[in-house]
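Lecture notes, part 5. Sequence design as translation. It can be helpful to think of inverse folding as translation between two languages: the language of shapes and the language of residues. The source text, in structure tokens, appears below.
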């Protein structure tokens, strides 16, 4: 019998001027989403942060709890355009596509400037 242990979630948090980056590593699911939510809430409360970047590139797995959390983050930041989500691995990208939330989130690619305005076609609120 092979037992696969779930990968716990760790979150790297870093500030660079007006930008604050959260990089979750591991698995974002019902057991770990609260950790990312707490990290996000702490950054969101800091009014000096102009842009919050949630970088999904180090996630190995994300379930619907993770997508729900990303949508909640977006709603919190929508009026101030304070959120960018960096596209993740194929597995994570597939979850975003299958759940239909990709078009509702401000997703950017790894090399995109998170402080640059999103083109109208990529603004989550305008694609509902």
């Amino acid at each position: 019998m092979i037992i696969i242990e779930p990968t716990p979630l760790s979150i790297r948090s870093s500030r660079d001027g007006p930008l604050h980056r959260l990089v979750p590593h591991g698995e974002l699911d019902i057991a770990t989403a609260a950790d990312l939510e707490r990290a996000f809430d702490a950054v969101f409360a800091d009014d000096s942060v102009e842009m919050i970047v949630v970088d999904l590139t180090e996630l190995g797995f994300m379930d619907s709890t993770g997508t729900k959390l990303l949508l909640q983050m977006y709603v919190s930041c929508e009026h101030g355009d304070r959120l960018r989500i960096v596209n993740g691995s194929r597995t994570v990208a597939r979850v975003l596509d299958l759940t239909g939330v990709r078009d509702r989130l401000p997703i950017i690619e790894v090399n995109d400037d998170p402080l640059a305005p999103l083109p109208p076609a990529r603004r989550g609120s305008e694609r509902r």
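The translated text above is only one of many valid answers, since several sequences can fold into similar shapes. The beta strands are 10-16, 19-28, 51-55, 59-62, 83-86, 107-108.
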